[in-house]
Amino acid sequence: MSTINFKGNPIQTNGDFPKPGAQAPNFKLVKGDLSEVSLDDLKGQKIIFNIFPSVDTAVCALQLKTFSQKAAQLDDVVLLFASMDLPFALNRFCAAEGIENAITASDFRFHSLAENYGVKMTDGPLNGLYARATLVLNENHQVVYSELVSDVVNEPNYDKAMSAL
C-alpha cells in the first residue's frame, strides 16, 4: 500500500507501484476499438506508460497532451495511456485533441492495473479510480523510470520520464 495525496490530504492506494529495475507486471486492458491489449502484445518495444484518474479532468488531459507532444518524434516508443474511463471517452478525447500517436486503453473490464500495479485509490474523493503515475519501460519491459505522483492534482515529471528513454 502506498500513501499519496489529493489536494494535500493523504489517501491510500491498494498496493505498491513498480520501482526501477523491476520487471513490469503484465496487464490486460480494453482498447478504443474494444479489442484487448496486454503487455505481452507490446514485446520488444519501449513504452511510456501513463496511468491516470480520468481523461475528463484538466490535469489528466494536460498529461496526455504533453506526453503526446513530447513523444511525437519517437518512432521506437509506444505511448500507452490507461485509466478506468470507458474506451469511448478515451477515443472522444484523443479525436478532439488530435492525439494519434498513442494507444488508449481502459481497465474497466479487468482491473489488472489495480491488481498488478497497485494504483487504485482506496479512499478519498476519487476512491476507486487510479492514481496518477508514469512508467518508462525498456524493450525488455524492465522499469527504467517510475513515478507515482505524490499528489493526484499534480502533473508528472515529464522531463525525467523522457530522459529515462
General description of the model:
By secondary structure, this protein is α+β, with helices and mostly antiparallel strands. The chain has one domain (3-163): Glutaredoxin. It has 4 helices and 9 strands. It has helices at residues 58-70, 87-97, 112-117, 158-163, and strands at 3-6, 9-12, 28-31, 36-38, 46-51, 77-83, 102-106, 133-137, 143-148. The strands form 2 sheets. It has a 7-stranded mixed β-sheet. The protein has a two-stranded antiparallel ribbon with strand order 1-2. It starts with a strand and ends with a helix. The mean pLDDT is 93.
How are the elements arranged and paired?
Layout: E1 3-6, E2 9-12, E3 28-31, E4 36-38, E5 46-51, H1 58-70, E6 77-83, H2 87-97, E7 102-106, H3 112-117, E8 133-137, E9 143-148, H4 158-163
Parallel strand pairs: 5-6, 6-7
Antiparallel strand pairs: 1-2, 3-4, 3-7, 5-8, 8-9
Q: Can you give keywords for this protein?
A:
165 residues; Glutaredoxin; 7-stranded mixed sheet; two-stranded antiparallel sheet; 4 helices
Q: What top-tier CATH class fits best?
A: Alpha Beta
Task: Measure the end-to-end span.
Answer: 28 Å
Can you say what the CATH homologous superfamily is?
Glutaredoxin
How many runs of DSSP E, i.e. beta strands? Answer: 9
Considering DSSP H and I runs of 4 or more, what fraction of the residues is helical?
A: 10-25%
Mean pLDDT: 93
Residue runs with pLDDT of under 50 for 5 or more positions: none
Q: What string gives the helices and strands in order? A: EEEEEHEHEHEEH
Task: Work out the radius of gyration.
Answer: 14 Å
Any idea what the shape is? globular
CATH architectural type: 3-Layer(aba) Sandwich
How many domains? The number is 1
